Amino acid sequence: MSLPLGKRAASGILWTTFLSIGGRLATLLSQLLLAHLLVPADFGVLGLAYTITSFFDIIANFGIERVFLQRHKGMRLWTTQVFVLSLGLALVAAILMCIAAPLGAEYYNNERIVPLIWIIALAMPFTAMAVVPQAKLKSDLRFRFLALYTSAELLAGQMAMVLFAWLGLGTYSFVLAVPLLAMIRLAVYWRVSPLPLRPLRVSRGWWRVLRRGSNVFSITVLTTCIGQGSYIMLGGLASATVVGFYYFAYRLVAQPMMLLASNFTNVLRPALISMNGEAERQKRAALKTAEMLGLITVPICYLQAAVAEPGLHLLFGDRWSDSVLLLQALSIGLPFDAISWAAGCYLDARGQYGRSLRYQLMTAPLFVIAVYLGATQGGALGTALGVSLYYMVHSLFITSVVFTREGIALKSALLCFAFPASFGLLAFGGAYWLACWVHGLVQSDMLNIAIVTLVGLLSYLWLVRTFRAELYLDIVSKLPLHKLGLSRSKV
Fold first, then answer.
1. DSSP 76
2. HSE-up of 374 (CA within 13 Å, CB side)?
3. Which of 7, 447, 473, 475 is deepest in the core (most CB within 10 A)?
4. pTM more than 0.85
């Protein structure tokens, strides 16, 4: 007998949380090893290459998977259309990406990005052919399998990067495994979750898929412009080495936050779609996820900011010291973005893509102004502060508008940000002050890190359990703790 939807979603969140923590540790270790094996300019070249590839990824994705996922019980009627359209768009995007590579190299005055872009383009058709079974897995709420496979793929990718870097392949280390991993994912997903393709002659609704996907496509274009805009502006003004310091800091901050938030939303989006017709339950689930994302992502980023200086100095000496302030500045605003993803999933589940696009357009000018002024006036640090400011304002706006229009009190929406931010500042700010005081007596980077981590995390958990007891107990009550050898009385 299958578990109820709420239990399946809670189980999915449990798996994604634990595996995200493991994935974060693997990613952190690989990034530190890569920082030893490579130079800042290598990271900068990769960041510049991704400013080109990200825009063509939009064409390949277009939004078809999200439209397909909304079909839910009628997915089998749309498999051929989605498969053919996804593959066709991916092939077009890959060809255009290869053509654009030399033009991007001329703009950045860096020929090293060309082969990286060509290698990434090889993976696009294989990724597109996996769209159908991937959407089927999400629709079937097979969260455990998706979490396990995603984590295994992440670990394999990180290990491959370190191996290639150790072999002396330089910047190529970042991308050589991408096509191979895409091919393996394609084979595994179709084997685990097959969905028969219908003959082309009986397939209908091609234009409908494209029309529904066009709003998602527009949203993706806008978010990609924002996601890559800081690299583009900074890359046009600074050297690859400066971009490398910024890219390294951004990856350290963004990767754990994006990994956790994306895993949460991979659980939330299909679960919310299954709740269509239960409006009250649907919006409460979205709000609860926003609260959970805030309580988890904010302390991770604030902890990173507090240990950035002693951590990078302990591992690399002064080699990556220029990334410290960048990492701290980005850690302030980026976790806010993860919280707003719950509101975005709610709009997706209801098919309100046009509304989501309007909200994105309303805050986009702030990004351009903040990042452009930051890049021109303050270089890499100004860029980081501009990005952080944008995500704070944008996320507060999106979350507040979406939830208040659904009848949820503005106070409830704002508390998704206020509690984690205030708890994080108190816990990790206090721990950082204590570590600085101890450092005046005993100068040890390792001791500083230990104090900030232990004191900060314990203080944060105490604050959450004391002042957010209802949410804390609600989360604990849904976790199958007996599988971990725990009982609720021990928590």
1. G
2. 26
3. 475
4. no
